[in-house]
Design a protein that fits this description.
alpha+beta, 3 domains, five-stranded mixed beta sheet, Aldehyde Oxidoreductase, domain 4, 530 residues, flat, 21 strands
C-alpha cells in the first residue's frame, strides 16, 4: 500500500472539491496528487467573455482581474456579475485572472491594475454587462430548446424557466448550447430599482477561507524542492557590497548558497530560520556610494527652498499677490508630512522558478502585467514564456503597485537551480519601502479688517514622481468654487515637485488637508483669540 502525505491546506481543497460549495481564490503551484485529482478542472462549457466561465456541471466562475487585499473586491465584484447573471452570490466561485492588459485592463488606468479605490467605479458596468450578456445567451439557448419566444422565459438562481409551462433547465445544462450562439453586441441592463444584490448588505466571501487557513497569500506558496531565501540590500541607494564573510554563512546548518548581486545579497537555505542566521553571519560591509551623506534634513531643506520659488501654476483666480500685499492681516504657515512606509502586514515576497525556456512567478501584486513584464525583461524571455500566479495580498495600500521585489527575486532565481521563495524580513521591508513622499505645503492667507479671507496662495512641494503633482491633476482635485475657496476671491496654486526617487503616494489628499482643514482652522483660531 502506498500512502501520501496530504497537507492541511490540501485537505481543505479536497473537501471543497468533493463536497461542492464556494471556492475563493485558486491553489497555485504543484500540490499533492490526492488534492490535484480531487480538485480537477470543471468540465468545459460556456465562456462568452473573459470574465465568466460556466461549466456543464453548473459551476459558475468569475475570472477575477482585480485583486483582494482586504478592501472587499472578492465580494463586491461577484455581486456586480451575479446581479445581472441572475444567480446567487453563493453560486459564484472565483479564480485569479492571468496577466493580460488586453482582456483585463482597468479602464481608468489602461493596465491590469487594482488601486486608487477604483475597482467598483471601473467595473460597475463592464461586469454587469458581462453577466447580462451571459444571461441573455442562456435564455436564448433555453428558448431554442423549447422552440418558444425568449420573452416567455425567466432566469433566476441559475435556472431558466419557461413561465407558461413551468419547464426548467439549469445553466449547466444550457452551457454547451449557449456557447454556440453569437454573442450579442448590446444587452439591456437592469433598472436599479430591480436590484436584488447591489446595494444590499453582504457578508465578506473571503472571510471564511482567511479564518480556516485555506486562503492562499503569496507567502504561503509551497513547491516541491523549493528553497527559501532572505535578502539584504544596500541601506543607501546606489551602494554596493564592499565585503562579506561567505564562509561563516555557509557554515550555518541548512544554508545552501550565497547570491551576491552587488547591490543585494541573498542567502538561500532550506528554511527561513537558516537563511536569517546565514544573513547575519555574512557581516556584510557596504560601500554607500554617492548618496552616503544624503539625509531627510537635506530633503526638507530642498523642499523649503523650492517652496519659496515660483512653480507650475495649476489654478489662478484674480491677483493673489496684490490682494495679499493689501490685506489687513496675513497668516503664513508651513505644513509637513514625513516619509511614510506602507507597512503591509505581509512583507514583500516572491517565489520564482527560472528555467532556460521559461519563468514562473508566484506573488501578490496589484499590477500583475507589470510583474510579468519585469520578469521578462530580467530573463530576456518573451512575455508568453513568463507565467505569473497571483494570490491574496496581505495588505497593499499602493505598495504592491510597484514590482521591485519581483525584479529582485527573478535576479536571484537566475542564480538558483529550482524554485526559490524570496522573503524580505520586516526590517528589510521597512528600510527598502517605496515610501509615500515627504510633503511640504507653504500656505499664506490674507484677511480683511473683519477677518474674512480675501486671498490665499498654496505652494505644493514633494519629492517623487512629477506626474503626481502635474498641473492637470492638481486642477482636477482642486475644483473651483464660486469666488474661490469659501468665497476667497484671489487664489494662486502652484506646484513644482523636485525629483529624488519615484515614490507612490496619495499626495493631493495631504494638500487638501493643509488648506481645507489645517490652515482654515488656524485662521479661525487666530481670529477667535485676537
Amino acid at each position: 500500500m502506498t500512502t501520501h502525505t496530504v497537507s492541511r491546506r490540501d485537505f481543505v481543497v479536497v473537501l471543497t472539491a468533493t463536497g461542492g460549495g464556494l471556492l475563493l481564490g485558486c491553489r497555485v503551484g504543484d500540490r499533492s496528487g490526492a488534492a490535484t485529482a480531487a480538485a480537477a478542472a470543471p468540465p468545459p462549457g460556456f465562456a462568452p467573455n473573459a470574465f465568466i466561465r460556466i461549466g456543464t456541471d453548473g459551476r459558475i466562475t468569475l475570472v477575477m482581474n482585480q485583486v483582494e487585499m482586504g478592501q472587499g473586491t472578492y465580494t463586491s465584484m461577484p455581486m456586480l456579475l451575479a446581479e445581472e447573471l441572475e444567480v446567487g452570490l453563493d453560486q459564484v466561485q472565483l479564480e485569479h485572472a492571468p496577466p493580460n492588459d488586453k482582456l483585463y485592463a482597468n479602464p481608468l488606468f489602461g493596465d491590469q491594475e487594482t488601486g486608487g479605490s477604483s475597482s467598483v467605479r471601473a467595473f460597475y458596468e463592464p461586469l454587469r454587462r458581462a453577466g447580462a450578456t451571459a444571461r441573455s445567451m442562456l435564455v436564448a439557448a433555453a428558448a431554442q430548446t423549447w422552440d418558444v419566444d425568449p420573452a416567455s422565459c425567466r432566469a433566476h438562481k441559475g435556472v431558466v424557466t419557461h413561465t407558461p409551462t413551468g419547464r426548467t433547465l439549469t445553466y449547466g445544462a444550457l452551457s454547451e448550447k449557449a456557447a454556440k450562439l453569437p454573442v450579442p453586441e448590446k444587452v439591456v441592463l437592469k433598472d436599479p430599482k430591480d436590484f436584488t444584490l447591489i446595494g444590499t448588505p453582504a457578508k465578506r466571501l473571503d472571510t471564511p477561507d482567511k479564518v480556516n487557513g485555506k486562503a492562499q497569500f503569496g507567502i504561503d506558496v509551497r513547491l516541491p524542492g523549493m528553497k527559501i531565501a532572505t535578502v539584504a540590500a544596500s541601506p543607501v541607494l546606489g551602494g554596493k557590497v564592499a565585503g562579506l564573510d561567505e564562509a561563516k554563512a555557509m557554515a550555518i546548518p541548512g544554508v545552501r548558497q550565497i547570491v551576491n548581486l552587488g547591490d543585494v545579497v541573498a542567502v538561500v537555505a532550506d528554511h527561513m530560520w537558516a537563511a536569517k542566521q546565514g544573513l547575519a553571519a555574512l557581516a556584510i560591509r557596504w560601500d554607500d556610494g554617492p548618496n552616503a551623506s544624503a539625509s531627510t534634513a537635506d530633503v526638507v531643506q530642498g523642499l523649503d527652498a523650492a517652496s519659496q520659488q515660483p512653480g507650475v501654476v495649476a489654478r489662478k483666480e484674480g491677483d493673489a499677490a496684490a490682494a495679499l500685499a493689501g490685506a489687513a492681516r496675513k497668516i503664513d504657515a508651513v505644513y509637513q508630512v514625513p516619509f511614510l512606509a506602507h507597512a503591509t502586514l505581509e512583507p514583500m515576497n516572491c517565489t520564482v522558478h527560472v528555467r532556460k525556456d521559461g519563468c514562473e512567478v508566484w506573488t501578490g501584486s496589484q499590477t500583475l502585467s507589470r510583474a510579468q513584464a519585469t520578469a521578462a525583461r530580467v530573463t530576456g524571455l518573451p512575455l508568453e514564456k513568463v507565467v505569473v500566479h497571483n494570490h491574496f495580498l496581505g495588505g497593499g495600500f499602493g505598495r504592491r503597485l510597484e514590482y521591485d521585489w519581483v525584479t529582485q527575486a527573478v535576479r536571484i532565481g537566475q542564480q538558483v537551480e529550482g524554485p526559490v521563495k524570496v522573503v524580505w524580513t520586516r526590517e528589510e521591508d521597512m528600510q527598502h519601502e517605496y515610501y509615500r513622499p515627504y510633503y511640504y505645503d507653504r500656505v499664506a492667507a490674507g484677511l480683511d479688517a473683519r477677518g474674512k479671507p480675501v486671498a490665499w496662495t498654496h505652494r505644493l512641494r514633494r519629492p517623487g514622481d512629477p506626474r503626481a503633482l502635474s498641473a492637470a491633476r492638481v486642477q482636477e482635485r482642486h475644483r473651483p468654487r464660486r469666488g474661490g475657496r469659501r468665497g476667497t476671491p484671489h487664489v494662486r496654486h502652484p506646484g513644482d515637485p523636485g525629483r529624488i526617487r519615484p515614490a507612490r503616494g496619495a499626495g493631493l489628499e495631504h494638500h487638501l488637508l493643509a488648506w481645507g482643514r489645517a490652515h482654515a482652522q488656524h485662521i479661525r483660531d487666530r481670529e477667535l483669540h485676537r
